[in-house]
Amino acid sequence: MKKSITLKELSKILGVSISTISKALNDSPEISHDTKTKVKELAALHKYQPNVLARNLKSGTTKTIAVVIPSVQNFFFAQVLYGIEQEIAKTDYNLVVSLTNESLEKESNNLNHFSNGIVDGFIVTASEETQIKKEYTHFTSALDNKKAIVMFDRVVKDINCDKVLVDDKEAVYKATSHLIKSGRKKIALVSTISNLTVGKSRIAGYKQALNENGIEFLESYVVSSSEEGIKKETDLFLSNNQTDAIIALDIQSSLSGLKSVKEKGLEIPKDVAIIGYSSERTASHLTPELSTISQNGIEIGRKATKLLIDRLKFPEKPFENIVVASKIQNRQSS
């Protein structure tokens, strides 16, 4: 492969200093229009490529941001990533994406690797295993290494950084209250994320709505399992309990709830109303169409990116917590 021409070689051909070549390529007002034109034409002719590594070493920045998320198959994370990409496109930063698959080890390795002079900062949501084991040293190490971090959705309370939060408790509180106002009294909660902070916040919203409306909270009406086991647990619950509504806290629980209710021969929403979490596209193609708690993933991604860029510009400013509101999309299932 032919080696790219250097600034020194360009300066030798044109008979000007290396500094003049560099300033011309960067549109410095110190350089005349004619000289800029000559330098750029010669650079294009010889397919000049700037030495990004050398430039970054000189400036002390990589102009790269890492997004560390569990998966891109999850619609919410995909939407957040889309919002991040939209905002990054307005800047001169590059973006790398790394997946943890809910593994603490992968998450830790990713942060430790990228902190080694590869990125300037991170946009991250904690993996399930990280939250269960409460192991956060990889975050503190990155911060100690002068890397900026913005956490979103699954944030760690003990880590001092900027955060973009979803109003999980308020969203499920509103959804549960809506079902109660429509006459539902025996409301079950179905979840595969009870171990996560977001799951706990959503359960707290459910409990609050029941309490404010004088409805007793029953532990037996909380159906919690893994993604693989939630359908079986939902079937078992419906066989042993009477319910007139279901709040599903995640996509898998929503789909399992719909399927289990229909398999029992119950009519939705006449016999059992359901509100869950899902993408709008999926929700509108289900039968019946699923009422959902809609998280604004794109806006979360945008705000997280703005926070990080701002943090990189002003590293000493106070940390911010931004809350992005969710909304209930009423469809046929409620």
Structure description:
The chain is of the alpha/beta class. It folds into three domains: 44 residues, no CATH class; 135 residues, Response regulator (Rossmann fold, 3-Layer(aba) Sandwich), CATH 3.40.50.2300; 127 residues, Rossmann fold. Helix content is 46%, strand content 16%. The chain has 14 helices and twelve strands. It has a six-stranded parallel β-sheet, with helices on both faces. Strands 7-6-8-9-10-12 form a six-stranded mixed β-sheet, with helices on both faces. The protein is elongated, with a radius of gyration of 26 Å. The chain starts with 6 loop residues before the first helix and ends in a 5-residue tail after the last strand. 40% of the residues are buried. The model has no long low-confidence stretch (mean pLDDT 93). InterPro entries: HTH_LacI, LacI/GalR-like_sensor, Lambda_DNA-bd_dom_sf, Peripla_BP_I. GO terms for molecular function: DNA-binding transcription factor activity; transcription cis-regulatory region binding. Keywords: DNA-binding, Transcription, Transcription regulation.
